[in-house]
Design goal:
The complex is a heterodimer of chains A (270) and B (284). Chain A is built from 8 helices and 10 strands. With 270 residues, chain A is α/β, with parallel strands linked by helices. Chain A is globular, with a radius of gyration of 18 Å. Classes of the chains: A alpha/beta (270), B mainly alpha (284). The interface between A and B is large, with 45 and 31 residues.
């Protein structure tokens, strides 16, 4: 495993840089310093995890990247086509909760981003069907969220994020509330999707095991104030399957990341 | 994800066969128990009147009330229509005004700050106390009655709808913002559907209150009123010591209230049955 010193800023494991955060500060109106001098570059086609204890500002960083809220200091630059990624429908966002409209069917929930973009139902139907099929929910188009299990709701949420064919998928602890068996299955399915599509994933998690299983690079963050303390490459090749979970490489990576996380938590005073 | 959904992810349907019998019994009990109590109360009423030989101008027996209802139908029916008309019109105006104002409240904090205190004042002022004033200032008695009923019915619609519009999931609001939703799209696709259960709850309360408002206003208008709603019939019967007709009018008012409540309960169930917890059966 290659260890890159923190705040290197320009180290990119993937292709060209997709988004760069330079000296980003975020202070909430109640005075809480969520992020202090955060530097991060995410390259195209990366699967990058932001890992850290609760309160380290990883979700805040993700929301800022999505354009939900403004930075207090520093800047966030999106490279490539279009400046504001959110406005150009170039990003998809998956929340920790499925965040579905309970009064709408699976079809209507997945159709929402296209509907808001003014695309007619007839034009959107094939794209919605494709997104629903991608997450393995064929035949559930007319079901209401309450009729679905937690894992299926999260699949709908992912389909909704993918229906606009985004360049980057931002995921905020999407599987944290799911049971382990469902989480493992969704981990595998997400990796399958990512390999097929070769877009970028920025994944916020507090699970060392999940981050090592999924990502090619892990950014370890510390709290009070939220900042990057270490970046680590996970050089295990894709495609990764269940046997990777039990391999010595996986264990080594987990141990190394855990150590970094402990160091980060001591540094953060947690 | 080409994987299909596994059985473990699928919600297992509750076993229906055993539960069916218990459910039928419960449904039967829900109808039979109140019915049995009602019949017993009527018999008791009738017996008390007969045994004590109470004159009908003090307390008529239930049979006499029914007889009067049928015999006086030609007088009571037009009055019933008048009361129902005022109630429904007031309710319609309350819904239109309440929902519109609630939407304005959520669009602008300034509007809410300016108007909400006055909506509360309108609500807490007893309608009996201001009805005579309204009758003085408004030329048409019909319009005055409408205003009184409207004042009572308006507030539950306004406050419930405002609460509902503000109760949309914050992450969903974030999501709408992320996809560049306009103010109108946010209102139409998110806030209004989210407010629906609250609005329907307000409608159920407002329906009953509109009827009460209409009756109270008619009482205040008294015999001066050119309109002859059911409250007027009660007043008139009271002056003539026609107590059975008072009871008959009272029964019609109660029935109207019950029908309004049942209608909105049914409407609420039909609108929410697919998704809202209040319209769901518990599955355990």
């Amino acid at each position: 495993m290659l260890q890159v010193p923190a705040n290197s800023g320009d180290a990119v494991a993937g292709g060209r840089p997709l988004v760069t955060l330079r000296h980003v500060d975020k202070t909430f109106s109640n005075g809480t310093v969520a992020l202090k001098d955060l530097n991060l570059t995410v390259g195209e086609h990366e699967f990058i995890s932001l890992l850290g204890p609760s309160g380290c500002g990883k979700s805040t960083a993700l929301r800022l990247m999505a354009g939900l809220g403004d930075v207090t200091g520093g800047r966030i630059d999106w490279h490539g086509s279009g400046g504001g990624a959110a406005a150009d429908r170039e990003i998809g966002f998956v929340f920790q909760e499925p965040t579905l409209m309970p009064w709408a069917t699976v079809f209507k929930n997945v159709y929402l981003p296209l509907r808001l973009a003014g695309i007619s139902k007839a034009d959107a139907a094939p794209r919605v069907a494709e997104a629903v099929a991608m997450v393995g929910l064929n035949g559930f188009e007319n079901a209401y969220p309450r009729e679905l299990s937690g894992g299926m709701k999260m699949r709908v949420s992912i389909a909704r994020a993918l229906v606009t064919k985004p360049r980057v998928l931002l995921m905020d602890e999407p599987f944290a509330a799911l049971d382990e068996i469902t989480r493992f299955k969704l981990n595998n399915d997400l990796l399958d999707l990512w390999k097929d599509q070769s877009w970028t994933v920025i994944f916020v998690t507090h699970s060392v095991y999940e981050s090592v299983y999924l990502s090619n690079r892990i950014v370890v963050m510390a709290a009070r104030p939220g900042r990057v303390v270490a970046e680590m490459d996970v050089d295990a090749p894709y495609p990764r399957h269940e046997d990777y979970r039990t391999s010595p490489t996986y264990n080594d990576h987990c141990r190394a990341v855990s150590e970094q996380l402990h160091r980060a938590m001591e540094a953060g005073g947690a | 994800m080409t994987a299909t959904v596994t059985e473990t992810e699928r919600r297992t349907e509750a076993a229906q066969t055993g539960a069916g019998q218990a459910e039928r019994t419960a449904r039967l009990a829900r109808v039979l128990l109140p019915l049995a109590f009602g019949v017993l109360a009527l018999i008791a009423w009738d017996l008390i009147v007969r045994i004590n030989d109470i004159p009908h101008y003090i307390l008529p027996g239930p049979l006499l009330v029914i007889e009067t209802l049928i015999a006086d139908w030609h007088t009571l029916y037009p009055s019933l229509l008048v009361t129902i008309q005022i109630t429904l019109m007031a309710l319609a105006v309350a819904v239109a005004g309440g929902v519109t104002l609630a939407i304005l409240f959520t669009q602008s904090k300034w509007i809410e700050l300016s108007f909400f205190p006055y909506a509360v004042i309108l609500q807490v002022t007893p309608i009996v106390a201001i009805a005579p004033l309204i009758l003085i200032y408004v030329d048409s008695t019909h319009a005055a009655l409408l205003i009184c009923a409207w004042i009572v019915a308006f507030f539950p619609i306004l406050s419930n709808t405002t609460l509902g519009l503000n109760s949309a999931d914050h992450n969903l609001i974030n999501l709408f913002q992320l996809y560049g939703a306009s103010r109108w799209q946010l209102l139409w696709h998110l806030r209004l559907p989210a407010a629906m259960p609250y609005f329907l709850g307000g409608l159920k309360i407002a329906g009953g209150l509109a009827l009460i408002g209409a009756i109270v206003a008619e009482f205040a208008a008294g015999t001066a009123g050119t309109e002859s709603g059911l409250a007027y019939r009660i007043l008139e019967a009271g002056y003539r010591l026609n107590i059975p007709r008072m009871f008959a009018s009272l029964i019609l008012i109660s029935l109207t209230g019950i029908v309004i409540f049942l209608f909105f309960t049914f409407l609420s169930h039909m609108v929410l049955r697919k998704w809202h917890e209040s319209a769901m059966k518990r599955e355990n």
